[in-house]
Amino acid sequence: MSFRTPEDARSLILDDVRGAQKMLSGVARCTPMEGSRHLTHLVGAPVHLKCENLQRTGSFKLRGAYIRIAGLSPVERAAGVVAASAGNHAQGVALASSLLGVRSTVFMPVGAPLPKVAATREYGAEVRLHGQVVDETLAAAQEYAHDTGAVFIHPFDHQDVIAGQGTVGLEILEQCPEVGTIVVGIGGGGLAAGIAVAVKAVRPDVRIVGVQAEGAACYPPSLAAGRPTSLVSLQTMADGIKVGRPGDVPFAIVAELVDEVRTVSEDELSSALLLCLERAKLVVEPAGASPVAALLSAPESFGGGPVVAVLSGGNVDPLLMQRTLRHGMAAAGRYLSLRLRLTDRPGALATLLGVLSVADANVVDVSHARTGPRLGLTEVEVELQLETKGPKHCTEVREALRDAGYLVVS
Fold first, then answer.
1. 20 to 30 Å CA-CA from 352: which of 114, 173, 317, 391?
2. Of 36, 59, 85, 312, which is the active-site residue?
């Protein structure tokens, strides 16, 4: 599919999106949309969460993978398909291939979370672990495609994939016809491009805001340069949007149709994930929580109409979830780390814990250091990990310790 003008791309792909929606009937779920009172209060306008984390395989990726593989010729299907992914795309390709009766091979990094590897195998793919980073895994998959004739299924840089992802946009228009703003995470750009094409063709007045992690934000410099450019390094917990270069096809669409691309910090991602779990009772991966992070970081900038935040996935490794929630609690002022000094004598720790009990702080962990160049002969340094009720309570705990005569080092 070639794009002569943005208008050609828009009308042509909108037809594909509508066709994709028919093809996905009975395959992909029309995922629910849930209101959020907390975010509505913050933003000053109705906020709805489009729950693609509840999609089959746990993310929107099934949509694009199914449309791409369904469009293969009989000869191509017979050769099988191959993909490279650390998680969501792997599972989408595996299930789509199984549903269509096509053999699939998925390359995953050696360090990919075990639950994602197991799920990909259970969906029917042959999994091959190769490389320490996704770029190495991608190279191995492309070499396999060259050697065997298997069709490489790109996670975002193909018009059929974008058409499939665009069905999320059609569902948003059906579920929230009065939508004013759609906020969506961006990695390579397939989901944002698909939503933009579907929505802008029907409702050009809808504002579309893309969100990237600060440590993996390839779109802002690419948009400034007018062409896809590559990042030198990537650092973010949001592996679902951890992409170093925009796809050529989605970039052209995002540059034309997406109104704004913002970035969010790791602290904001952690806080968003915690909010989704506590307030919405939804398990969402960091990439999927990126739109909520954008709403939390600047709620006043999203007023003026109903807002839909797309929760793109919920495939989060339990260990990462544990670390992220703790990080989110710290960012929200509900997890306090302190180091202080006290006299090394029997009962000193019990007295300290009594002060914390009166202050209503829950002690999670305690560690001692009895030797150090800054410690006196009878001193001990204690490091405390505490659960608190928020920033105000953190201040109250610190003040209670100081009032009791303790020297708080940090």
1. 391
2. 312
387: β partners: 335, 362
Whether 265 is a known active-site residue: answer no
pLDDT means per 10 residues, the chain with 410 residues, are 43 82 97 96 97 97 98 97 92 98 95 87 96 83 96 95 97 98 96 97 97 97 96 90 92 96 95 91 95 97 93 88 75 80 83 90 82 70 85 88 84
**How crowded is the C-beta side of 277, counted as CA atoms within 13 Å?**
19
Active-site residue among 36, 50, 61, 290? 61
Distance CA 162, CA 156 (A): 7
How far apart CA 111 and CA 129 sit, in angstroms, is 8
**What is the C-alpha end-to-end distance of the chain, expressed in Å?**
59
pLDDT at 373: 65
Render pLDDT for 162-217 as a digit per residue (tens, 0 to 9). Answer: 999 999 999 999 999 999 999 999 999 999 999 999 999 999 999 999 999 999 99
Active site residue 61: yes
pTM of this structure: 0.84
Residue 47: count other Cβ atoms within 10 Å of its Cβ. 26
